[in-house]
Design goal:
The protein is of the alpha+beta class and 124 residues long. The protein contains three helices and six strands.
């Protein structure tokens, strides 16, 4: 039997993930930041870089999107440990996995794994 509360929570989570993907692939940092909790984290294990708080995450995203220099990134939805996730790819190939930790209708954490081999372990 399907738990109605869990189904509603999953619908909210999926909507947040969809809005994130739309904003991120459009390069709209302000829209991505609007989805974050005030104390959101962005990390990229195993790299030691971590960004805590909306301003720090926004700064990192602005720098990263400027570095992408117009390259088109696609995000294909999947799940990782029951959380919304995306297989990221540039036209030239895979770009890793991004996992969102959703709290209510906001994103509490973005975890980015740059290991392109991980993409093969997640369903489309």
């Amino acid at each position: 039997m399907v738990d109605p509360a869990r189904s509603r929570a999953r619908c909210v989570e999926d909507a947040v993930a969809r809005r994130f993907a739309e904003a991120f692939t459009a390069g709209d940092v302000d829209a991505v930041v609007a989805l974050l909790t005030d104390d959101a984290w962005l990390s990229m294990p195993p790299a030691p870089h971590e960004y805590h708080g909306r301003d720090a995450v926004a700064g990192f995203l602005r720098a990263g999107m400027a570095h992408a220099d117009g390259r088109s990134l696609t995000l294909r939805p999947t799940r990782a440990n029951t959380q919304p996730a995306f297989k990221a790819a540039f036209p030239e190939g895979p770009a890793g996995i991004g996992v969102l930790t959703v709290a209510g209708d906001r994103i509490a954490a973005i975890t980015r794994f740059h290991d392109i081999a991980l993409a093969t372990r997640f369903p489309d």
